[in-house]
Design a protein that fits this description.
Inosine-uridine Nucleoside N-ribohydrolase, Chain A; 9-stranded mixed sheet; two-stranded antiparallel sheet; 11 strands; binds beta-D-ribofuranose; binds calcium ion
Length: 334
Amino acid sequence: MDDVDEPRPLPPLTAATAEDPVPVVLDCDPGVDDAVALLLALAAPELDVRAVTTVAGNASLDLITANAARVLDLAGARGDLPLARGAAGPLGRARRERDADVHGPGALGGLDLPPSRRAVAEASAVDVVARAAAERPGELVLVALGPLTTVAALLALHPESADHLREVVLMGGAAFCEGNSSPTTEFNLRCDPDAARRVTESGVPLRVVPLDATQRALVGPETTAPLLASRDARGRAVGQLLQHISTQRRDDDGLAAAAVHDALAVAAVLDPTLCTWVEGGVRVETSGELTRGELVVDTTAGTDGARTDWARTARVAVDADAGGLGRLLVDRLA
Ligand code: BDR
Ligand code: CA
């Protein structure tokens, strides 16, 4: 795709407020950290969650969608909040399986939530997001917490959505650090590099929350303990989800604190000062033998003497306030 000639200016990086909540759609693949992200978003008066959509990633689309419905019930989300199924896998290639240990039993770390009777929309995720964006042109923020298959399909099938969306905030990539799926790639972008590439080329303003930031915002016992002791069922559930992530991290490398990737993306909408941002252009490698799915950042894009002709459409989080996410989770959910 050609580069955009005149990119839209990046929207202001302001904190969300309860007086003027930010309308969001959450596209997710719960997933332990997706579940924490959903519970945080739905507990935040600063966000107006307009719909939840699912995409296969951490597990099959059926399991992911059933998990999303269960988590929405736990969150006390209104019964008519649209929940819609998105892509069951990347177009034209097999779905990449997530190592079953990462998200544990049921892909929710063994969290025992009753099956949901919540209706799943007949409309596809793509149509639900397009409608939500058209209802709030220039305002809706799409928060993408899984592979970018559904987001790319949205931009292909509803090109007007690129103008309607205020921003896509996405958890994905390893910008200047090591990956978690291969040495240079992060799981979400690695799952569907072609989709991710299309999103980065679309001209839609992006707020990218890669491993560089999420691996800095580690959550440990000071967060998990008050959540587990909470009188609120949502808080206790988040405590159990965090416990799953921490136990895994301890088994893997002996650390007592762990990253809650997707929750940081939601937190970055609530309070962008939790992250340190650089601006530039981004692309995703689609053909490298060793690097398919790698996030490539050009901080010079759009400036005099730029190294690429990419438009300056992205903010990338390169660091995060180490204790900020944990404090936010305790404050909102314990
Ligand atoms: C991402 O991969 C998934 O397993 C998580 O839910 C998160 O979105 C982190 O690389
Ligand atoms: Ca996810």
